[in-house]
Amino acid sequence: MSLNPRIDRWQGRRVWLIGASSGIGRATASLLHGRGARVIVSARQAAALDDFVAAHPGSQALALDITDRAALQQASDQLLAAGPLDLVCYLAGHYQPMRAMDIDLDDALRHQQVNLTGVWHLLAALLPALLAQGHGHVSLVSSVAGFRGLPRSLAYGPTKAALINLAESLYLDLQPRGLGVSVITPGFVATPLTAGNDFPMPALLTPEQAAAEIVRGWERGEFMIHFPKRFSRFLLLLRLLPYRAYFALVRRLTGL
Fold first, then answer.
1. Which of 95, 156, 243, 246 is labelled catalytic?
2. Cys-Cys with 4: which of 38, 47, 142, 221 at CB 3.0–4.6 Å?
3. Is the keyword Magnesium assigned to this protein (predicted)?
């Protein structure tokens, strides 16, 4: 049974994708544009957004820094003044491997600002209008790294775990009021964020494959859209292990 309303067509739907200058965000925007959605793409890189619009006529670019609360409020007001938004997806993210022996406080706080605080800026700006219009869908991109603590994920993992918890709370509040909520938990995807990883990335997907999984999940009305299933299901099962077994297994699998 679907937890959200199924989306059976994209033609004419206004979709705002935040963090769409590259990687999964750009691929998802391209896919939705091809299906007839009225796509708005946002990120800091204005040139990359302009390139997207040039290649996808009819789409709209709106450059912004999601850590700037006033800028995001202004962008939200501007888009809502032009009409209702049918789906808003927060894909912006920051990732650098980090371990407890080498804490970089500035970078740790950058994870917090981009991966989580930006979401709060978006929700504060957007939710009153979505509640007033009585329909729409909010989607947050987390990660399988948010399921449980993992090596090298000291700064990244906690922010992604928070997004899963946040989406669950949002769903309980917003679903009875006619809004859809979903959380997206990808495994490894070949993007600029993962390009610097110096360890094996099992079941690595292309951004286009990830975009197809995301759109399919929205169309099916899923709450947690996780992929690739052969990898994400394994990590979901690890959530059930007691700590002694979990820590021993992760150390054996990672060699750390």
1. 156
2. 221
3. no
